[in-house]
Amino acid sequence: MGTVTLGVSIAVPEPYGSLLQERRAGFGDPAAHGIPTHVTLLPPTEVAPADLPEIEAHLAGVASRVRPFPMHLAGTGTFRPLSPVVFVQIVEGAPECTRLQAEVRDASGPLVRELQFPYHPHVTVAHGIAEEAMDRAYAELADFEAAWTCDSFALYEQGADGVWRKLHVYDFGGGVPVTGVPAQGSPVDEPAATAS
Fold first, then answer.
1. Are 23 and 138 in contact (CB under 8 A)?
2. Number of helices (H) and strands (E), helices first, in the chain?
3. Are strands 38-47 and 4-11 parallel, antiparallel or unpaired?
4. Measured between alpha carbons, how far is 4 from 144 in angstroms, rounded to an integer?
5. C-alpha distance from residue 56 to each of 28, 48, 53, 114, 145 (Å)
6. H or E segment at 55?
7. What is the mean pLDDT of each run of 10 residues along the chain (196 residues)?
């Protein structure tokens, strides 16, 4: 029956996403135009197509429990020599990404899997290219900065051509006001209702 390759990630919004994708291409990374600029929550994972409805329901449930949070990218880092990657660092939002990816891969859900390396949220800007080009990426994006409110993640499928295509965006549900709880500063000394 075959499998499909899925990934879950937070998209880096415009104009930053296209800018970093173009820079990645400019450093000579051949994968640049097939990979939207993102923060990975689930790395490429093979699943049976029949599992997609369960996976989509799981991701919708995860998103419904998350509140929007601030994301701030600044400066560069690298996983070299362990892994040939240069990335833009996440200086705000990393703990939230870490919790989110753990929920996506939770043992009770359909996307449980081990990771090759400990999870470290980041935005890849060069991968597996010449050392000189990696050095350029590290230096030239050292002053890069971007900030936004993260309010969703998305499910992607990798095509036979190697290009990642968005299947579905999952908006966070934390923005919905909770009813029955007094707002900050509202009076709380009113008599409690009694059960009749």
1. no
2. 4, 8
3. antiparallel
4. 35
5. 35, 13, 5, 20, 32
6. helix 52-64
7. 92 97 96 95 96 96 96 96 95 97 95 91 96 97 97 96 95 61 38 38
**DSSP symbols for 120-154:** --EEEEEES--HHHHHHHHHHTTT-EEEEEE-EEE
- Residues 6 or more apart whose Cβ sits within 8 Å of residue 76: 86, 87, 88, 89, 125, 137, 138, 139, 141, 142, 144
Q: Tell me the pTM.
A: 0.85
Q: Please compute Rg for the chain using Cα positions.
A: 20
What gap in Å lies between CA 69 and CA 174, rounded to an integer? 10
* Paired tokens of 130: 């010449």
Q: Is residue 196 exposed (0-12), middle (13-18) or buried (19+ Cβ within 10 Å)?
A: exposed
